[in-house]
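Sorry to interrupt, but I need a hand with the structure work. Could you write out one complete protein record for me, on any chain you like? Could you add the entry underneath, on a fresh line?
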Amino acid sequence: MKKNQVAVLYKTVIIILLVGFGFQAQARKGMWLPPQLNTQENTMRNMGLQIPVEQLYNEDGTGLNNAIVLFGRGCTGEVISSKGLVLTNHHCGYGTVQGLSSKEKDYFANGFWAMKHGEELPCPGLTVTFIRKMENVSDRILIGLDDTLQGIARDSIINIRIKNLEKGYKYATKLNAEIKPYYYGNQYWVILSETFKDIRLVGFPPNGIGTFGGDTDNWMWPRHTGDFSLFRIYAGADNKPADFNENNKPYTPDKFFTINANGYKEGDFTMVYGFPGYTQEYISSYQLNHIFEIIDPVRIECRTALLETWQKKMDESRDIFLKYTSKHKRVANGWKKWQGEVRGLRLNNVPSMKTGYEGIFQGWTTTDETMPFADNLLSRIGASSLAVGDQIKANYYIQEAVYGIEILRQGDDLDKMLSVFRSGASGTQLSDSLQKLAKRWAGFYKNYDVGTDKEVFKALMPLYFEKSANYVPKLFKDQYNRSGSYEKWMNYVFKSMATDKEKLEKFASTNNPADSTIIMSDPVWQLYHAMTEFTNAKIKPSLSAYYDKMEYLNRLYMKAQMKLDHSTEFFPDANLTLRLTYGNVQGIDPDGPAGYSYQTNLDEAVDKHNPDVEEFDMPEKLRELNKNKDYGRWGENGTVPACFIATNHTTGGNSGSPVLNAKGELIGTNFDRIWEGTMSDLYFDPNLCRNISVDIRYTMFIIEKFGGASWLLDEMKFASKK
């Protein structure tokens, strides 16, 4: 068969393959860099977009990108007023609010609402970052580099170029500049940003609204969660970023979102604008099988045991609940997501689909002579991946089971203290180093309970021994055998000074280098040290070599896919940089012909109220407002819309993202995905994948009628009524 005949055959097969796998909704897939939106404008307009893409992003400072912030380290927020008011998710503010809460000021139980600027609470350590401009600098980073160049030679050249170019951008623009890789290092973009450090809490619904449904409803649909919170950006006299100061003023933004409370209907065009965290849409079947068959099952198994143990102790004590509620939600979030991910991959038979695609790709490589390296890429990826399965499994049992025991993670601080003693420092230098280390302990011990961690030890350590028997350090085995039982071993380990903040601080205050011998006899340090040496010798070398090789092979595989696959629009995988995705308001029919509605409401939420189950215990005031139909201007059809779903392609990091209508107006706040579609980090199926958002009318209703903070609405801009 001639090459052109082969090419036609493979092109025909791939079209059939892609259509058969549901790729007919390809236009709804993708997390696009704002400067790439001009390539999507025609599709977006055909789906309903009513404004030029230049209004979404431009380089003259008037784009809506100037109303979006990276909230903290991994969420999104949107500016919704002329006075720097930021709307994000309740769960995005949860950790910050935990630091502001106490038994006397339990904001989780009672909520928080500032009634004037002077009541807004400073949030130490919290930042928000605006993206002012993004620019493709690939030609300046990759010029003269051969595609097959790898390792230190390539990395050192690129790192030097990045460092120098970032300096130039910072000098020229007076903005922060960061250059990041995209498409596995086949492109590089510079991101110019501005970070504000004086952020204050404005509004936070109680858990009975903000986490309503709890872990039971997490990743599920229908949903009735008022998952939002409000913060405010403060700036210096020049409206620029400044450290906290009582004299700082509310920030005046270049742009803020107009709020549209007129509603939407099924089929309406929507966009989600934010900072998606991490996806792997283009990996091989071998890497996918690591996730599907090893990584996710191990994480699910270990976290099930951990969460059950935590929950039991949290149910017994409000004090323990306050210590562990944020940690519990963080751990449970991934735990449930991975269960949905495995289910979705299985339902879609994605591993087999990947294998099928790779057969087609291999055919393409025989018809293209411009990329000779592509012919054996998949065989090299496969051989490398299959060789490290056991080490990957052991590594995840260590991370999830061994280091799921909090006190063992504190072994790292003991090890750092030992390094300080061994450094030869003395006098003031030694004291300063130890005190700097001690400052880290306040946050840990504020939210730590020894009794709870003991129960975790008894739950997780047997799991590790049983499921990773060939990767257990000798010291672990010796201590267990000497103790005779996990409980006796636990009692020995928890004699460590690391279990008590006062003991640890007292020890650090002695400033005696000879005390290093005491650290080396501490049971927590011994276990931590033994595990560190073991992993460094038995696991890390092979995994480091594997990941280094895969970084190289994935870059070539990505380049080859983009060159040879003419049926796919390639967006870069998420990496916590600003993206826009688009779709339609649409219900879901995951299991049969009945289907689910695209929208939920307050009446349904009240029906789920259960005072005996904390995650479904709705505040009495909210139930009273509903009973009296006291909805103000936010009601529709005799209730208040609560949440809705759409086909936007989202992931972690999109929490708090603005959900926009065809005019770029705010209609909701993204907070989750449905369980059936959590596999979208690896494979997006428009038939199953939905993002879940709080309806902006529910947000406004809670602020005004429940929180009594109507003064905040005065600084917002609302679209005209229909």
Q: What stands out?
A: DSSP finds 27 helices and 18 strands in the chain. The CA atoms of residues 134 and 191 lie 5 Å apart.
